[in-house]
């Protein structure tokens, strides 16, 4: 497939927010349905590496890439439906997963509105105290600010709640990657006894007992209320959770003053000496893979075996998914167990080279950063936070 990199910059207005976008690497034939008027693709800009020199215009241009987010029709007033890319994953570069929609599904305004209602509803947990939003709060970039999350009956979980920002860009879900789709991911917490603790029968019964839900499900799905459609609408809503307009994106879109000199120095370190981009790469600043940093190593084993519990591969002991760095300044505490309270703690952890153990990732090496370099790196990490937008403009029902 031929792809043309278009370097023209444009501005798009998204729910009152000015969003800089850089068109490019988008095949109209592959990613648009037969009738483009029936779909809308919202493009948010990103860059895979910093510009090195004004004397290097070709390589600078080559690194200026976009990600095309499949966003529901409420972003496009001329359309009622946004169709998926025929089940394919849209990528900003080879091997980099971007938002995808299952081949049998479509994103609609009705599905997203319904998913938003379900996401905020505490009645859909066994003791009516926990909603999806209690662990993934919009006010905290869709995390909860806790070391580990609390489920029904005050049961304390063993892992930190990861952000849902740009969750549609991930290839696998949960810290250990046990779910391969957003639909599978949405299913897990509903029926986990330590999270929402529902049964299938009780879930359907509670939804059916509320006047708003049978109507909304019938509007969103031809077959109405079902467990499959509950997770489908939750996944639809989560695909709209996007991080936009970070200072980094605006800098790469042509605003040279938006990053401070300190942050620009941090950017050079991020893609250079600090080696952060070996794992935190691509439009979402994540390779989507699993790495052992030594978090949770007790000296004779791991407190949480991570990816190993899914694969059974010995080398996966203590390995966890690389999280996105989008909105990272808002998603403390950090790591799968919430053991690092601040970004400063995270930088120090990597500077030491993690904690040595038999399966530590060979990419994890001591960095030997100076104190000024650490401050610069932190300034750049702060620049990866922008505006988080999700769902539709109306608020969820009480």
Write the layout of secondary structure elements.
Layout lengths: L9 E5 L2 E5 L6 H4 L9 E7 L9 H6 L1 E7 L10 E3 L22 E3 H11 L12 H4 L46 H10 L8 H10 L2 H9 L6 H12 L3 E3 L2 H6 L8 H11 L18 E3 L15 H4 L7 E3 L21 H10 L18 H12 L4 E3 L9
Antiparallel strand pairs: 1-2, 3-4, 5-6, 7-10, 8-9
Question: If you had to describe this structure to a student in words, what would you say it looks like?
Answer:
By secondary structure, the chain is α+β, with helices and mostly antiparallel strands. It is 27% helix and 11% strand. The protein has 13 helices and 10 strands. The strands form 5 sheets. It has a two-stranded antiparallel sheet. Helix 3 (109-119) runs antiparallel to helix 7, helix 3 crosses helix 8 (227-238) and helix 10 packs across helix 13 (371-382). Residues 1-98 and 394-398 have low confidence and may be disordered.
Estimated helix fraction: 25-40%
By DSSP (H or I, 4+ residues per run), the number of helices equals 13
From the N-terminal CA to the C-terminal CA, the straight-line distance is 48 Å
Query: Which structural category fits the helices and strands?
Result: alpha+beta
The H-and-E topology, N to C, reads as: EEHEHEEEHHHHHHEHHEHEHHE
């Amino acid at each position: 497939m031929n792809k043309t990199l278009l370097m023209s910059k444009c501005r798009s207005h998204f729910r009152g927010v000015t969003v800089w976008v850089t068109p490019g690497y988008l095949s109209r034939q592959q990613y648009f349905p037969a009738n483009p008027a029936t779909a809308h693709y919202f493009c948010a800009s990103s860059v895979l590496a910093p510009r090195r020199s004004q004397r290097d215009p070709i390589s600078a241009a080559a690194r200026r890439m976009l990600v095309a987010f499949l966003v529901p029709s409420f972003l496009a007033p001329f359309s009622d439906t946004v169709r998926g890319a025929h089940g394919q994953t849209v990528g900003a570069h080879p091997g980099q997963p971007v938002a995808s929609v299952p081949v049998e599904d479509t994103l609609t305004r009705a599905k997203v509105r319904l998913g938003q209602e379900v996401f905020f509803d505490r009645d859909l947990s066994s003791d009516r105290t926990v909603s999806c939003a209690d662990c993934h709060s919009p006010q905290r970039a869709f995390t909860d600010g806790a070391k580990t999350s609390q489920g029904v009956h005050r049961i304390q979980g063993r892992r930190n709640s990861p952000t849902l920002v740009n969750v549609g860009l991930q290839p696998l879900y949960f810290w250990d990657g046990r779910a391969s789709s957003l639909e599978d991911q949405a299913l897990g917490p509903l029926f986990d006894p330590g999270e929402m603790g529902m049964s299938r029968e009780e879930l359907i019964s509670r939804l059916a007992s509320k006047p708003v839900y049978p109507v909304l499900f019938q509007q969103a799905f031809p077959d109405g209320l079902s467990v499959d459609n509950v997770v489908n609408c939750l996944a639809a809503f989560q695909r709209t959770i996007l991080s936009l307009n970070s200072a980094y994106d605006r800098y790469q879109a042509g605003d040279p003053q938006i990053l401070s000199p300190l942050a620009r120095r941090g950017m050079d370190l991020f893609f250079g000496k600090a080696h952060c981009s070996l794992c935190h790469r691509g439009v979402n600043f994540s390779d989507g893979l699993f790495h052992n940093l030594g978090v949770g190593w007790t000296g004779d084993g791991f407190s949480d075996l991570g990816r190993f519990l899914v694969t059974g591969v010995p080398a996966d002991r203590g390995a966890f998914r690389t999280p996105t760095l989008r909105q990272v300044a808002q998603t403390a505490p950090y790591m799968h167990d919430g053991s690092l309270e601040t970004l400063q703690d995270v930088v120090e952890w990597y500077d030491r080279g993690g904690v040595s153990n038999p399966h530590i990732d060979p990419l994890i090496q001591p960095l030997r950063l100076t104190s000024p370099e650490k401050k610069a790196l932190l300034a750049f990490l702060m620049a990866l936070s922008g505006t988080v937008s999700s769902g539709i403009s109306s608020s969820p029902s009480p």
